[in-house]
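[[Sequence with tokens]]
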Amino acid sequence: MKNPIKGKNGEYLLTLAIETSCDETSAAVLKNGREVLSNVISSQTELHKKFGGVVPEVASRKHVENVDMVIQEALDLAGVSFKEIDQIGVTYGPGLVGALLVGVSVAKAMAYALNIPLIGVNHIEGHIYANFIEDPQLQPPFLCLIVSGGHSHLAYVKDYGEYEIMGKTRDDAVGEAFDKVARAIGLGYPGGPLIDQLAKKGNPEAIYFPRVYLENGSLDFSFSGLKSAVLNYLHTQRQKGKEIIVENVAAAFQQAVIEVLVNKTLEGARRKGADKIVLAGGVAANSALRQTLKMEAEKIGIKVKYPSLDLCTDNGAMIGCAAYYNYLKGYTADLYLNAVPNLKLGEVYENKTNYPQPHVHQIVDENVDNGDKR
């Protein structure tokens, strides 16, 4: 994509991004969309552990407490002031509605006060764009497997902001299944990292759990049946008074999940003739998924890319990158932007009123490119 804009200083554009979709309060400052000057994340994991999962109302209240401090820290670490920011990007969905509203409200107030563009960002899209930060030379097209606590998508990324959804979950998201199984075997919350670590000590062949592929040719996912199979196994073992080796349960469950994810992703790549596969989302941090997908893809000549661990979690940097490319396409929001908890990947906010917009920076050389495609 071309880079036809510049910021207030005439050389680069600074984006302030805010992410509050679930239980991380995050803010980041980016230069020209891919260079991260700061990326501050305030996690609520310890707060929600005692509940066994995220409590929406608690998360929302904590965002209110943290958001101003997190934004100021991001600016301080980047060495910039509010007056130097060229645009503000914010997650407006999908996510927990109360949590989203905190970030959206702050972003709208700042965009109005500073008279700068406001860009609404899809949280799922943000996860994809984390890979553009990790690899500055990465360009579409590629196939992306997006797996997190609330989402499981297999999407073909045709171009920036252009997606073909090839498969998605019909019930539990991958991360949700990890959390529920972790709770069942007494690991606590969050389940994904705990199962990943425990599975390394277990034997994935000790127990067989079903691999759910659905109807022939489908690239959709379903993990509720697998979760039920694990619960039934635990219940049966307890009824019979037999020992439960939790390391083996974790390893067998994780193996069943990964086999389905990898096989469907490789089939999606085959259908599209893709030479690159990209991982995104919180579950992209799973070590076994990374290793297995990379190994199997390389056997057939496909490269696999994934973000560093700090970019897999919910973070402002990925939202800032997505905001930058949305702005290049002209996707700015008005001050009536609202939280959309069930926002779909590929949906774009459209200005619905004639409400006055913050200013747009001048158009400059349209022949400047951000990098060679590969």
